[in-house]
Design goal:
The structure is a homodimer. Chain A is globular, with a radius of gyration of 26 Å. In chain A, a hairpin with a 6-residue loop joins β24 and β25. Helices cover about 30% and strands about 25% of the residues of chain A. Chain A contains 18 helices and 28 strands. In chain A, α11 (about 345-355) crosses α16, α13 (about 490-515) crosses α17 (about 595-600) and α15 (about 560-570) packs across α16. In chain A, strands 8-14-13-12-15-16 form a six-stranded mixed β-sheet, sandwiched between helices. Chain A has a six-stranded mixed β-sheet with strand order 27-26-17-18-19-28. A five-stranded mixed β-sheet of chain A has the order 2-1-7-3-5. The interface between A and B is large, with 43 and 43 residues.
Amino acid sequence: MHIKLTSGEKLEISEGESILRALKRQRVYLIASCGGKGICGKCRIRLIEGDWNIKSTGKLDPTDIKSGISLACQTFPRTEITIDIPKESRLVVGDKIALSKSGDLLDLLHSFKVDIFPLVRTIELELPPPTIDDNISDLERLKRSLEEKHLLGVRFPYPFVSSMSDLLRNAGWKVTIGYTVSNDIVYVKPSVANRERYGISVDIGTTTVVVYLLNLTSGQLVDVGSTYNSQMRYGDDVINRIVFATESGGLEELRESIVTDINSLIGLLRERHDIRREEIESAVIAGNTTMTHLFWGINPASIREDPYVPPVNIFPRWRAEFSRLEINALAPVYTFPCVASYVGGDIVSGVLASQMNRKKETAIFMDIGTNGEIVIGNNEWLVTAACSAGPCFEGSGIRHGMRATEGAIESLKIDPETFEPTWTVIGNGEPLGICGSGMIDAVSEMFLTGIIDQKGKFVEGTNTKRIRNGLEGPEFLIHSRNGSDIVLTQVDIENLLRAKAAMYAGVSLLLKELSLDLDVIQKVYIAGGFGNYIDVDKAIIMGMLPDLPKDKFSFIGNASITGAYLALLSKDLRREAGMIASKMTNIELSVSQGFMEEYLSALFLPHTDINQFPTVVKRLKKKKT
Amino acid sequence: MHIKLTSGEKLEISEGESILRALKRQRVYLIASCGGKGICGKCRIRLIEGDWNIKSTGKLDPTDIKSGISLACQTFPRTEITIDIPKESRLVVGDKIALSKSGDLLDLLHSFKVDIFPLVRTIELELPPPTIDDNISDLERLKRSLEEKHLLGVRFPYPFVSSMSDLLRNAGWKVTIGYTVSNDIVYVKPSVANRERYGISVDIGTTTVVVYLLNLTSGQLVDVGSTYNSQMRYGDDVINRIVFATESGGLEELRESIVTDINSLIGLLRERHDIRREEIESAVIAGNTTMTHLFWGINPASIREDPYVPPVNIFPRWRAEFSRLEINALAPVYTFPCVASYVGGDIVSGVLASQMNRKKETAIFMDIGTNGEIVIGNNEWLVTAACSAGPCFEGSGIRHGMRATEGAIESLKIDPETFEPTWTVIGNGEPLGICGSGMIDAVSEMFLTGIIDQKGKFVEGTNTKRIRNGLEGPEFLIHSRNGSDIVLTQVDIENLLRAKAAMYAGVSLLLKELSLDLDVIQKVYIAGGFGNYIDVDKAIIMGMLPDLPKDKFSFIGNASITGAYLALLSKDLRREAGMIASKMTNIELSVSQGFMEEYLSALFLPHTDINQFPTVVKRLKKKKT
């Protein structure tokens, strides 16, 4: 049997195979964060023609179902069928938004004033071919030539030697040798002028995964891939993942899950740019402590057991073959060092990208992801703490939430008279969902216009048809077209309040612990994958960010992947990352008595103690008059 | 269905499964050097009761067939059957003969005056358990403790780290750490007083494989396993193996074949002594250049291509996981260095065991195996050459040939009047076959008694019924009982003459090349697995050994495995092996014009130029008078 796509492709499908599976088998990748269990509702397709069985409709809206939307993982064709794959369901590779920042990345790299120095160094050799009089073995011949170039004590990994002889001969004994800082040989290649060299940087978030493909010579970002972390099927937060990892076979399952996500993206990137597996010669991994352990298949159990000690903070530079990454098997993999059980390599990477560790001024670094992490400090000291924020700003757990990619509503206004919303969409097309920055706008605007109250509850009697009763209680209709509604529900709003409360509580408690006043803070770096920018006013109105002057805020996006980009290209910045990690002092907020108190106070809009938000007080007063 | 063994065991067998396969599946290992193709004739069983199909009887004698002998690989039961497995068909583990030499090995080790210093060093650590105030990660904790003991720059292999945390915790943080000379961690174990430590030494011959299981603390030989190299199914000599290796999939097949042989032996040894896989913490491999490459899965093609350069002579110490040996995955594997394409690590190992490199006197070292290798030299210089002798002295290619294990006829006399043979058997039981030393005796005695002539041909008209016409022409009946005949055939004798001629030609040509007279030679070390000793007179009569006084000869048996034993136990002797390899000068006899001439002259008994054998001349004259 076949599936026809409206894009023109024709794919095969077997009896009893789900559409999701058949597409994946033929390299058409959909977002399926629950792994095809019908739970996450992300693998939406539209059925156009043919006959099929639908096992479950999951969380789909009745209107969506009416218009032919179905979950690919739950749909089994009975005949030849034709389907349409909406943009929002596709795994994103070649993200225009991300790629447009390529120049900024290079500028950033140059601003560090470091040389490009990848994980693999190279040396050109011209070996004399063996003769009856000079008949030492190939390996000794290579060793001799390396020693003549003063490269001593080289280690020859087994997989290298097992394929070395053919390579040397085919290259006519004129070769480029790649080797690591610890003198482990990575490859031997025919000497070729201007060969392109590739590497990948990976940010493993609890909710999302981003892969950068880099040109190691120019430092250019070649392409980007991103997707949801499909470990989500095992639980939203790191604690659930750790629990699952300690069950029989759980660790292996979680490891395989994240490695498959990354390898799918690598595969797509390689296909797009016609790059062979062996050509990707190094990798950098940045992730929180749990993600990093799961990626490497190391049991994270001790992370959540008193005294909260992870198996590894500083990861050796193992070879890709041990990571299962589908790149050159001998490629060195640099893993960002972790600081503590709940402050990981992604934060070290983010701080590196922010440069706060290089400056005199005291700054706050906030990473708003599934786990909220906060760093306060300057070029002399760095203190860090974690607070669990939840994945909603990354689009998960929000009915029409999505990551900040094309089609996401990234900013939003509501007319205070008519309650009609207006918005901007990333890429300027039809809106497909709403990303973090859009959510912040929406909640603040709904609060300012009185659609929701200080507790985030819908106010009864608001004069608009946009408030209606949905599957999960009241909801606000943002956009409707072709029966494809985008709404923000009561449940969504509650999730967002919990997330912002955790972040804000973290910041205020950490300042308290350090006996620092807010006005000492010269800069606030906001990191996270929630959008291209946040409207600071709105985020302050929501009570997510502290009430500071607008010019003190700096949005640095996904700082973890930016740091991973930098580390792949520079030896000095890898060293700097190590210094950042060793400098950071971790404070366990979760064991602090005050945290729950601060959190409960922050669950309001903007806060129970309104005096912490003087500009919001002013604004609300102005509105009333 | 079931197979009953006369020993009492009852095993399962499936429809259409050969007996060989069923036995192997249930860990009853037979010798099957052809891998179950019905060619080698070694997996003989006796069918007692039941009904069966026999696909082929291969080279079995009609008398054997009549008495119920069948090849296990060619026999397929139709009903429940009962069989007997003759001793000579069983894979040998726990060889009494070899084990009886255990004391000699220890004496030899002591004679070198070196300390026992295995490949893995150990250090005892008592780590402070983590607390909320001392909460560095497990790996950093371990690193810190190692650094306190002045062990810096340690490398933590991936498989070690992935299981480290549980081990540290289960051991209550009191552990023994094993690490290599290059500071790679091998294991962490709970600290236990007097733990036994194990390693294996392996001699990979073209025809036979020997595995020693050693106690690394005492230096004691714990047990021995040996079998035929089942690569034999792909050809008798290294050239055929190399050719096969260059065919598609051939290298992998040959590699898998030898690794399986070794792992079968290791498995049996582990079972017998109740040793877990992880407890075998190091290994030494000695083999000729081709065998070593095939073992490591490295393409040996260039070995037989002008200018005869092997991919590797000095093998890095890779971890067992890359060798596929079923021992501790991180165990270091020391591979004896090779000298040239046809002079390998087995010869370096043998020279090490002989100690000729430590002495002033000039000696000849002859390794009589499938490939004959010769070394001439002393503590100042060593010259070596190879000559292909063939596998007959190891029992292969000889109708009733067998290795020098229990049941082998190891010496033989023939009465010059009655032509009745008498013999001694290893282990003093019923003879099962004839080993190398027995063959030498047999050929010499048949020559002395006039049964065969100077060309090795049976002389017509000899007055004895022991000479009869067999399947392959005339043959001499050595022993007959229960229809189980042991014979030496015309073909056997021709094979033996070719083997001895190659060895002798090698020695005389190498002496010529060095312009050395035979009387310069103070010592001749004879290595090989052909028997406990050779009757020197007989070997000289046969023209295999040069005509020197008896007291100059020293039989050192399988010197390659002895050297592997020494190297597993001593760092100094591993270094000495490296020095031997780099000191040896290889001379290519095969390219020398004179070789074929010398070889053809040596095909006679004892030699065309009888003057090279003055004592034989005397003896023959005495006989005539």
